[in-house]
Protein 1
Amino acid sequence: MNNPARLRDFVHAFTSLADAAAQDEARMLEQGRVLLADLVTHDDWLPSAFAQPHPDRYQQYLLHCDPLERFSVVSFVWGPGQATPVHDHTVWGMVGVLRGAERCEEFAPASGAGPLAALGEHHLAAGAIDIVSPRVGDIHRVSNASPGAVSVSIHVYGADIGRVERHVYDPATGAAIRFVSGYSARATPESWQ
């Protein structure tokens, strides 16, 4: 880590955006995407403590939560072969790939009871940005697309995502179970020294 000021500058800029447009999701996503793209084009700021994989499951590290919970910034770390379950967010979000690559499979609920509809998939290389929201599409499964390597992405959500009640889905039946993700760890001011 050479430049921890990059995250501080990102948080300041995103706070200004939230001050101006917190109730305007389209503006938050449009302008926030530009800020996140700039952050993830530089791989010299994330402390190694927040880029550590776990041998059995992906990690979700809280880097910053706005005091008013208008947004949170989280690093996701994927070991080889690791994936999320199919899940939703219930708030807007952005994903910027910092290292490696990710595969995103998108789904939609059936019109009645039944399996989720598979909408397709796309791959995100380092530097790519993806968007989620109940308005534009919110159900997906994400996996590490870098065989044998660790992938790291930076996520920004329109809430303290670790405290939001969300859903995990069984894609074969469409059944949903509520969950709250929490975090693997939270950054402290000392962790950025």
Protein 2
Amino acid sequence: MNLLDQWLISVTFQAKKATIWRNQSIWKTIFYLFSLLGLCFALTVFFSTRQSEPISPTIKETQLHVANGKLVTAKSDVILLSQINSLIVIGSDQSFENLRYENILLLEEDTWSYGRKGYPLQSNRYSEAPFVKNGEFTYDQALKRATVLDRQLKWFAPIYLYVAFMLQLFVHIVLISLLALAGRSFKRMHDITYRQAWTLTAYGVTLPILIKTLLDLFGFQIGFMSLLYWASIATFALLAIRSIDNET
């Protein structure tokens, strides 16, 4: 059975039919997983990076600078850096709360903060900022720094995306291996090997990652998405393994 047929069966959550390729080469399964994750990751990157904004024009509009240890801006704004899954929030603009970006640099009047969305941000005074000297950071300095950052992002983004994808692949392999180990406990019901359990679990990723990718592309967020994601994969593997037992 070719990869397209396997994808169609997996994406329609036909766990029982998936059991027919449980004895296939582990390398074919790994290639399927790699291709699936790579395609979904590429789609997310392609569409999200089209929303990316250069930093310099926003700095010109906001006329950002620091005086006497306080941020001074003409207006609040948000800079989307989709290529590195990040955003810069200038001033008191809170619209970023509805955005799906994970890395945040928040520049408020008295403090600047950074960190991951959903976690407490690390807050600092402007006197502690590496780009501020003696409590001052002029508009010209901000514009020059923004121009440099725009150039650096073009070089850094591909490295960031490569690391992000490899990390995603690693996490999937580890958690699939753990779920397969749990599925292996069904040996008392049917003689299933660990490799077979791993293969069936890996194919369970198909529908959940497709749904997750579509949600990401349309900007929807679900707080417990990770739990639903892995619960769906575990459910697919369980149904597939139980259907093997029903064949006998």
Protein 3
Amino acid sequence: MPQDWGVQAVVAVASAVARGADPSIPARALGASRARAGVGIVEAIVDLAYLYEAYGTPVAVRALAALADGWVAVTDSGEARATAIEAGSGLSTVEHLALRLADVATGRAWERQEGGVTVVLVIDVRAGEASRPATWERDILLGAAVRRAFGDDVPSAILRGRAVVLVRCAADPVTASDVPGVERCREVLTSWWGQGEVPSRLPGRFTWFPVPIGSRQDVLTSLQLIVGP
């Protein structure tokens, strides 16, 4: 998104890459800037890689390491924006969802309700082949479907064709029929995708996992493993 790049660190990084200079210091500043803007670490790394690709040069490992170091420093300090929303989808980043889980009594507060269990629901609608505009449209539609099926107040996140939703289920162990909102979400996705608007799995793959607990980094690592690359 163009507004993500209106910061001085971008100019400094691009200048260093163009001149073949050491990009470590500006890359670290860029990582910090992107974290403050609520941008996920994966997206930040991918965008930096595209910069190198545009210049036709291999990605400098030291630049990636510096960018990640700056991003982590801001995230660990709590400076990152509280309303970290992915552009287009209206859902939060996976990193922000991990912060919310870790901060609410390390996730255990979700389990204090009488009966039932809370699960992390993953909705995967990634396409086998899709152009970049179709991919953007896919994530916008996925975000809208999640909000329509589960509501705006349910903790949720998105990562490139996969939505993550924290759902309270009445029964334990959980079966497909026990997860509220799944059928509604499936119906919405089928009605939109069935019209051939974007190439994708139909009507989406729904899987669920236990809520991860622990420190912020532990929860983030668990969520990233759950969602996948």
Protein 4
Amino acid sequence: MAAIAAATLGLVGCNADEAPQPQPAQSAETEGAEETSTEFVAPKSREVPEACAELELTLGAQLEGGALGECVGQALSSYGTGKMEISGETTGLVEFSYDPEFNVQGELQSPAGPVKLAYVGGEMWIDSGSGPVKGDAESEVLEEQLAAVAGELTRMYADIEQTVQLIQAQPVWQVAGDFATVELRDGEAVEAYKIVSGGAFSWHEIPVSELIVWFGEDWVPLSTQATVEMMGMRSTNGQEFYDLGEPVTIVPLG
């Protein structure tokens, strides 16, 4: 889930900022690299996901984590493409595609400074201001190692199956008794169902203090908010979805 990915990316950014910077000759070479872009076009229509159609979304309802996880996973990817605004310690705008596989690009402001990223075709590129660096877990260059870590975290937390498991890690969820008002980026205010985790829980040994998801009618994804603890740091990050189903063009930084 991107809210958790943003938190972890921010922590990776902090570590990179504190570490010694590699010499320019060691950085990933970008001169002469072929820059390609891919336009991802979502399906023309979107139906209520099958897993969600089996759930009754009503005020005050209690939902079981297993079924809700399947629904949330399908709902987040049901449009195929979209954009999101990240909020919290790390902020910024992100474009993404889930069809045929997960790809993402964005410009973020992390605690360590501005960061551009592109995860395309399983490769992560990060530019923290000194030029694009390609993630390489086997590299002796620290920047490239950290970019590889960020890429793996992004892939892991944005993977739909991981989203399903995240929700299912908490067996009890509660729909708030009243509608929440969510203001969309175009200024429109919509009534939303606020679904809150039934207490703190752990996922992949990461303590999650609270996770909230907001959906509109027909399980339209609106926003999420997660409070997690990693490497001794507590962080609350959110994401707001917009332009769901609109074409996006994702360009590798390198």
